């Protein structure tokens, strides 16, 4: 399973080997030894979640208070999505930078988002199913969002002829600059320490 670090420090894309045959296919979307070899630590799965979205739906940019912090391993089980990792860690050498990966049901690439890094995606097909492995529990009061439409970020989330479909939470989310002013963003050194403790 080849791995490549993304433009956001500590974030990776994994490309597993897919085994198709006349019945369908088989793929291992997470392999602990290969993950640990790439990132330097194993990924402790605490919770697995799934979302389904129609074409044009944008989810994110979501992140968790740090502490406690949560790392994520994300792949697309059905459909296609343009997946974004956004560095929200104040003090990070890649703060404010983002990278994107096409996730689909053909290649089964996955992204790894370390503690403190924000996640977003835009669904490119109807009934796009995204699977999230998380290092900690989802606790509502610890979950935050940055506007995916923040012009300073410049995420390409608008599809031709389709207005982005956002939740109320994401519509009212602050910009990156506003979140920084409000003191909502994770600290880089704290994020690294929490990541090392996974």
TrEMBL record:
It comes from the Bacteria. SUPFAM superfamilies: RmlC-like cupins (SSF51182). The keyword Isomerase applies. GO terms for molecular function: dTDP-4-dehydrorhamnose 3,5-epimerase activity. Keywords: Isomerase. InterPro entries: RmlC-like (IPR000888), RmlC-like_jellyroll (IPR014710), RmlC_Cupin_sf (IPR011051). One of its GO terms (cellular component) is cytosol. The record marks 138 as: Participates in a stacking interaction with the thymidine ring of dTDP-4-oxo-6-deoxyglucose. The active site is at residues 62, 132. The keyword Isomerase applies. GO terms for biological process: dTDP-rhamnose biosynthetic process; polysaccharide biosynthetic process. CDD domains: cupin_RmlC (cd00438). Pfam families: dTDP_sugar_isom. Belongs to the dTDP-4-dehydrorhamnose 3,5-epimerase family. This is dTDP-4-keto-6-deoxy-D-glucose epimerase.
């Amino acid at each position: 399973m080849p791995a490549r670090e993304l433009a956001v420090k500590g974030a990776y894309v994994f490309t597993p080997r897919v085994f198709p045959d006349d019945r369908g296919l088989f793929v291992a979307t997470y392999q602990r030894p290969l993950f640990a070899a790439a990132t330097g630590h194993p990924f402790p799965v605490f919770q697995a979640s799934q979302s389904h979205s129609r074409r044009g739906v944008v989810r994110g940019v979501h992140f968790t208070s740090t502490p406690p912090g949560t790392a994520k391993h994300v792949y697309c089980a059905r459909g296609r999505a343009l997946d974004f990792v956004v560095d929200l860690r104040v003090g990070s050498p890649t703060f404010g930078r983002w990278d994107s990966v096409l996730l689909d049901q053909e290649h089964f690439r996955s992204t790894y988002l370390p503690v403190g890094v924000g996640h977003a995606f835009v669904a490119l097909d109807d009934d796009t199913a995204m699977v999230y492995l998380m290092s900690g529990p989802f606790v509502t009061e610890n979950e935050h969002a940055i506007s995916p439409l923040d012009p300073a970020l410049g995420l390409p989330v608008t599809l031709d002829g389709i207005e982005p479909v956002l939740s109320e939470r994401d519509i009212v989310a602050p910009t990156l600059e506003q979140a920084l002013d409000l003191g909502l963003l994770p600290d880089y050194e704290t994020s690294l320490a929490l990541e090392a403790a996974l």
